[in-house]
Design a protein that fits this description.
This protein has 202 residues and is of the alpha/beta class. The protein has four helices and six strands. It has two domains: 60 residues; 118 residues, Glutaredoxin.
Length: 202
C-alpha cells in the first residue's frame, strides 16, 4: 500500500467514526427528548381527559336538581321572604355577602345577591360535625362558594345557585361537586364576574 492509499484509508476511517459519533449523538438527543415528551404528553392527556370528563358531567342533568323561574332581581332595602329555603333568587339586598365559610347563619337577602354574582350557597341543618368538616374541605379556599348553617331548611344539605337547588342527605354525595362545577359562575349567573368579596361578612 502506497502512502496515498494509506492516507485515503485513514481518512475513510475518520469519516466513518465521525458518522457513527453523529448518529450516536442524534440517538441520545432523541431518547432524551422522548423521555421528556412522552411523560408530559401522558400527563397532559390525563389532565385533558379529566377536564373533559368533568365538563361532560357538569353538562349532563344532575339528578334531583330543581329549577325555578325567578321573576325579578331588584335591589331592595326591605326584607324579602322567599318561597324556597334558602331562597334561589329574586329581589335582594343591595349589598352582597362575602363568599366563604360561616359557622353561624348568614343574612339570606345578602346571600341571594351573591348568587346573582355566580356564587353557590351550601347550607346545612342537623348534620354531624364530621359532615360539616367534610363540607368545609369541599369549599376550601375556592371562590364563589358560601357555606353556612340554615336552621329550619327542609333538608340536611342544600346547594343553591340562582334559580337552581339540590337537596342531599350526605356530605359525601358526589352530586355536591358536580353541582358546584356546573353552577359556580355557571350559565344561570346574571352578573358573571361580579365580586364575591368587598360586601358584608367575613
Amino acid at each position: 500500500m502506497n502512502k496515498r492509499e494509506e492516507a485515503q484509508l485513514i481518512l475513510a476511517k475518520a469519516k466513518a467514526k465521525e458518522k457513527r459519533t453523529k448518529m450516536l449523538t442524534v440517538a441520545l438527543v432523541a431518547a432524551a427528548a422522548l423521555a421528556i415528551v412522552v411523560p408530559t404528553a401522558v400527563v397532559l392527556s390525563g389532565a385533558a381527559q379529566e377536564k373533559s370528563a368533568a365538563a361532560a358531567a357538569a353538562a349532563a342533568p344532575i339528578d334531583g336538581v330543581k329549577t325555578y323561574e325567578v321573576a325579578s332581581a331588584n335591589h331592595v332595602t326591605t326584607t324579602v321572604t322567599y318561597d324556597q329555603m334558602p331562597g334561589v333568587g329574586g329581589d335582594h339586598n343591595p349589598v352582597w355577602l362575602n363568599c366563604g365559610i360561616y359557622d353561624a347563619p348568614v343574612p339570606e337577602n345578602n346571600a341571594v345577591h351573591s348568587m346573582e354574582h355566580g356564587a353557590v350557597w351550601i347550607s346545612y341543618d342537623g348534620i354531624s360535625d364530621a359532615e360539616v368538616s367534610a363540607l368545609k374541605d369541599t369549599v376550601g379556599e375556592k371562590t364563589y362558594l358560601i357555606l353556612s348553617p340554615f336552621p329550619g331548611q327542609d333538608g340536611k344539605i342544600k346547594l343553591t345557585a340562582w334559580g337552581e337547588q339540590l337537596s342531599v342527605d350526605s356530605a359525601d354525595d358526589p352530586r355536591i361537586k358536580t353541582f358546584i362545577t356546573k353552577y359556580r359562575q355557571g350559565p344561570q349567573t346574571l352578573e358573571p364576574g361580579a365580586p364575591c368579596t368587598g360586601g358584608i361578612g367575613i
